[in-house]
Each structure stands twice: as structure tokens, then as C-alpha cells.
Design a protein that fits this description.
With about 180 residues, the chain is mostly helical. Helix content is about 75%, strand content about 0%. It has helices spanning about 15-45, 50-70, 80-95, 100-125, 130-150, 160-180. The protein starts with 13 loop residues before the first helix and ends with a helix. The structure holds fe (ii) ion (FE2) (2 copies).
Length: about 180
């Protein structure tokens, strides 16, 4: 899709919408890094350690890119970084304490929400924001690869899978909503 979605009454200006996008994505990638740091604190030396480290490395690259965009475009970063610092790490550590498969199920749940989030963002960006759209599309592909990796590592057979998935998804959606605005 190349054309931007039509603007509705009450929608933020295109500039404000892009700033919000960068703010929430920067926050999200920061949260992702913290989730994996929490998981690695528990599972770093386990069999799953290698694959978690691989995903964490990619999240750090995503975060670096959005840090650059925040500076270049003078976007106010979310005021909630201290919260995501703690909540991301706690989610990572808590899921990892439930076991490797639960840690993987946490990744699948987060990445499914992010896939949807990045897809909507990319669809709303026009040609004037082609570079940002490409970044988002690239990162979306990485997140889908994380989901697939986690599924290949037993996410589907995690204990309390459905409850865990639903909880993580609700939390992720609330985090997105908040980081877009605050
Ligand atoms: Fe990411
Ligand atoms: Fe990811």
C-alpha cells in the first residue's frame, strides 16, 4: 500500500502523528530490550539462552534506530521510560521463571501485538514518510521472525498458555496506548 490512510476529524496532524509513532515505537523497543534482559537474567545459561540473546541483540538494534529518530526529529520521548524499565524486566523475568516455554510464549504474545501495531503504522504512512515506513516494515519482519523462533522453541506448549498469552497481550496493548500519549 502506498497511499496514506485518510485523516479523520479529530485525528492529530500528520507531524504529530509521526511524532507519536516514533515515541511509542521507541518506548516499545526499549520495553523489548528490557523483557529480554529479564529473561536472560533467569535463562541466560539455559538451553534457550542462545536464542533469547539473538532476539535481544536485534531488539537493541531496533532501539538504537528509534533513539536516533527521537533525536533527529526532536520527538519528546515517553515519560514512562522508568515504568517500562521495571515492567519490561519484570515481565521477562516472571515469564522466564515459569520456564523456557513460557518465556517463548511471552515473546509470541508480544510480537503478535507488535506485528499488528507496526502493520497499522506502516499502512498509515504515505510517500513523504517512505523511509520511516521502510524502517517499520523491516522491524515488523524481524518481530515476525522472533515469533516464529519462539514458536519453534515450544511456545505453543507453555504452561497456562492461554492465560499467559491473554495477559501479556492486554499488558502490551495498554503499554502501547500509554506510550503513544504520555
Ligand atoms: Fe523490536
Ligand atoms: Fe521482537
Amino acid at each position: 500500500m502506498t497511499a496514506a490512510a485518510p485523516r479523520l476529524p479529530g485525528d492529530p496532524s500528520p507531524e504529530a502523528a509521526v511524532a507519536r509513532m516514533i515515541r511509542v515505537d521507541h518506548a516499545g523497543e526499549y520495553g523489548a530490550v528490557r523483557i529480554y534482559e529479564g529473561q536472560l537474567a533467569v535463562l541466560g545459561k539455559s538451553q534457550a539462552g542462545g536464542v533469547i540473546r539473538e532476539m535481544a541483540e536485534q531488539e537493541r538494534r531496533h532501539l538504537e534506530r528509534f533513539e536516533k529518530l527521537v533525536h533527529e526529529r526532536r520527538v519528546r520521548p515517553t515519560a514512562l521510560s522508568p515504568l517500562w524499565h521495571v515492567a519490561g524486566y519484570a515481565l521477562g523475568a516472571a515469564s522466564a521463571l515459569l520456564g523456557e516455554r513460557a518465556a517463548m510464549a511471552c515473546t509470541v504474545a508480544v510480537e503478535e501485538v507488535i506485528d499488528d501495531h507496526y502493520r497499522r503504522q506502516a499502512e498509515s504512512l504515505g510517500e513523504d514518510q517512505a523511509q520511516l515506513r521502510r524502517t517499520i516494515e523491516d522491524f515488523r519482519a524481524d518481530e515476525l521472525a522472533h515469533r516464529d523462533l519462539a514458536l519453534a522453541h515450544g511456545a505453543g506448549s507453555a504452561p497456562a498458555h492461554d492465560l499467559l498469552t491473554a495477559t501479556v497481550k492486554i499488558g502490551s496493548r495498554i503499554a502501547i496506548w500509554l506510550s503513544t500519549r504520555v
